[in-house]
Write a structure and sequence with these properties.
- By secondary structure, the chain is an alpha/beta fold.
- It has two domains: 249 residues, Rossmann fold (3-Layer(aba) Sandwich); 98 residues, no CATH class.
- It is built from eleven helices and 14 strands.
- The strands form three sheets. It has an eight-stranded mixed beta sheet with strand order 1-8-7-2-3-5-4-6, with helices on both faces. Strands 9-10-11-12 form a four-stranded antiparallel beta sheet, covered by helices on one side. Strands 13-14 form a two-stranded antiparallel ribbon.
- Helix 2 links the parallel strand 2 and strand 3.
- The protein is globular.
- The structure holds S-adenosylmethionine (SAM).
- S-adenosylmethionine binds next to strand 8.
Amino acid sequence: MTPEPKKGVSGGMTILQRVAPARPVQARRPTPESPEIVADRVIQGDCVDEMRRLPAGSVDMIFADPPYNLQLGGELFRPEGGRVDAVDDDWDHFDSFAAYDRFTRDWLHEARRVLKPNGTLWVIGSYHNIFRVGCALQDAGYWILNDVVWRKANPMPNFRGTRFTNAHETLIWASRDADSRYQFNYRAMKTLNDELQMRSDWLFPICSGGERVKGDGGAKAHPTQKPEALLYRVLLACTKPGDVVLDPFFGTGTTGAVARRLGRRWLGIEREERYCEVARTRINATLPFDESAMATVPSKKAAPRVPFGALVETGLVAPGTVVWDAKRRWRATVRADASLAMGDVQGSLHQVGAAAQGAPSCNGWAFWHVEFEGEVVALDAVRQRYLLMVGE
Ligand SMILES: C[S@@+](CC[C@H](N)C(=O)[O-])C[C@H]1O[C@@H](n2cnc3c(N)ncnc32)[C@H](O)[C@@H]1O
């Protein structure tokens, strides 16, 4: 597919609930710009070694959640005495900053080689590593497009009371080169945000509840599983259906699960066999959304404080959901970018509500109703649930 210019590309799709049965991913013919890659699989191994085996220029987007190099100095306990479940796994241990930097430069180099010229890289990290990674990626030739703050709605407290609550992580979004014509689905992002330009501060809860993959005895399968909503926004922002997304630190396979839902192809590399198995099982159980829910649309109106897109991203109102007015005269379908489609009419919940009534404007939050937890409620009630969920 031809990459779009830097702005205004529309093309997007689908989180937590599903609409259509699984369908095999279509094989595409290799082109000179797009060497063939065998996608939709988990590779067990070291990501630097495994990326070396991949063809150059074969991947549209990379999402990397590398080791944080937390350098924990001993156990951490809660005030009531319980042990804090911190990241103390072997994969997060490096002997020194120099060793971490060497590792970072190695994987960034291979990642850049496998990216297409117009491809982009996302890296997520905390204050422990993100500044080192940022420096290394600029040195490697990447071009930083944004840094995005993921503000955690429910962060872990600072148990010792010696610092601020560490309530965010940082994502860096960079293109392969300074002049890359990278994909950015500007309009889809704006529609997802109720017609306000999407900002670089994102509020999402940390991964918990049913989304958290559990192992034997109900324990977390992995200490740092990322929320699907975060990946949903990332993938919807800068990839198209059919694009190849690589995650070199695959963990539980969050990137693969969301990519599959959104009709993107994916490739995961993970060193630990136990996590590879977790990821394969998880992704196999994930069904893609229906293609008809994948189109996106522009529009103009201003927004309430909670964008409808936040409800779609977190799965409270999944793409494909049907909404009605209170008297059930009109019905519309929710699409991946939080637009509604009612026959030929498409747009934000406010626009489609207005079009249905032939009115100049409409408060879509009050107009549209949905079946939610066994009851028919106005979308505004679901918005209130979201606010409770994020603790606002
Ligand atoms: C921060 S976690 C990623 C979690 C993942 N984003 C998720 O949502 O489940 C980093 C993962 O990278 C893996 N890892 C560490 N070093 C690696 C390497 N050199 N090659 C491949 N995987 C590695 C670890 O085993 C760990 O599962």
